[in-house]
Amino acid sequence: MLFFLIWLVILSASAYLFFVASGSLSPLRPNMNSIIFYYSFFVSSYIGALLIVLKVDHNYMINRMVFEENRYAGFFSISFVMLVFPLVMYLLSKLVGFDAKKEYSSYLEKEVVLPFAGKNEFFLLFFLISFVSLAAIAYTVLKTAHIPIFELILNRTGMSPGELRIDAQRNFGGNVLIRNIFAIALTPILSLIAYVYAAKTKDPKWQVLSAALFMGAIFISVYDLAKSPIFFYFIMFMLLRLYIGKMRFTWKKLAGWGFLGAGLLILMYVFIQGATNVQTYLSYNSGPIGRLIFAQIAPTFLHFDTFSEAIPFLHGRSLPSSLIGLFDIEQVRSARLVMERVFPEKVAEGTAGVLNTLFIAEAYANFGYLGVVAGTVYVAAIVQAVYISFLRLPKNPVFLSLFVYFTINIPRTLVGGFVDFIFNPIWMMITVFFIGLLVFIRLRIDFSAYLQQRKAGIRR
């Protein structure tokens, strides 16, 4: 009962702080911070943490814990994040004079500005970039020996879905950067930008390009049988429509989408996981429900159970290889070490990858409880700085699409690891690429205008 009361008080305080730091916690007006609260923290982390500390989880991962006291260490560390993370966001907002409620509402009401909409050279450049992105998808298909979604449908290899996914990741015969950046990361963002231009201009060439990119984004989201990317892509698409005024969220629509998503998820479990037992879907600690409330947070407890107990702290060995490589240190991801310790049989079979979890787990694996405290403050400040920046940037298709991309991918990364918030090459490349695109086109147009003015002056 004591743990439940602590949980309830912390949750209430966290909800209030998230509200004042985000401007809205209403599901009808979602934003990056509200998604972090509901998805990354409440559903994916704090419900499971309560059940684990109460010892009523009956979860297969928690059953692998050796030191029972780490149930309490994990619970109080997650409670710390629930409280301090939004507190740091709120304090940063006060520091820079950010009125979350006012500025978020203003952003929703802003009209979308369409820079270069009438410039053929902009469309041509965007078309060429889109062609490269779609070509990267084709390249990914050609360089992957077994395309998981095709193999599942045709059943040619006899490998399980888990083995197909691992095989597609580890035995990819091409350049990983081409696949990860141009195919997986770039295509969804390009599809969002093209959709804004298509929806606002009604121009057929933008509509055709938007449709092609949309289909490409869907394929690259499902080709490896991952269940979450396609859901997150559709959420990005709906958020974009909300932000440009093409859609209004209602409770009826949310309920309909929820039932549709649940149905699709069950179908994916049946055909991909081979799960046909009805009890699997109804149980709170297995199937879709167990994946939501335990799969992301149980590895956090396993991190506390592993580091300093079975394995020494990493002392920064999880930091980006570009940094520690300067000191001739090989990068080691804590999520992989935990998997090797807890599920050695799955690693030996080749069906296990990493146990990604709440970002504090990786921070703890490297620096102990100091990492939990400092990591929470650091990541919260970064997240709020990103949120404030996008709300204050011009509302054009590029910045808007990047905002939607980070609105979904930051919450996902919070339950993926800590190091990605120190140096994330894909995030940096995407941001620099699109801002560079805007700057290049603006300079190109300004230079053309300058040449025309000079030419007109010479004629006079």
TrEMBL record:
<feature type="transmembrane region" description="Helical">
    <location>
        <begin position="425"/>
        <end position="445"/>
    </location>
</feature>
<feature type="transmembrane region" description="Helical">
    <location>
        <begin position="254"/>
        <end position="272"/>
    </location>
</feature>
<feature type="transmembrane region" description="Helical">
    <location>
        <begin position="209"/>
        <end position="242"/>
    </location>
</feature>
<feature type="transmembrane region" description="Helical">
    <location>
        <begin position="398"/>
        <end position="419"/>
    </location>
</feature>
<feature type="transmembrane region" description="Helical">
    <location>
        <begin position="35"/>
        <end position="54"/>
    </location>
</feature>
<feature type="transmembrane region" description="Helical">
    <location>
        <begin position="367"/>
        <end position="391"/>
    </location>
</feature>
<feature type="transmembrane region" description="Helical">
    <location>
        <begin position="75"/>
        <end position="93"/>
    </location>
</feature>
<keyword id="KW-0812">Transmembrane</keyword>
<keyword id="KW-0472">Membrane</keyword>
<feature type="transmembrane region" description="Helical">
    <location>
        <begin position="122"/>
        <end position="142"/>
    </location>
</feature>
<keyword id="KW-1133">Transmembrane helix</keyword>
<protein>
    <submittedName>
        <fullName>Oligosaccharide repeat unit polymerase</fullName>
    </submittedName>
</protein>
<feature type="transmembrane region" description="Helical">
    <location>
        <begin position="176"/>
        <end position="197"/>
    </location>
</feature>
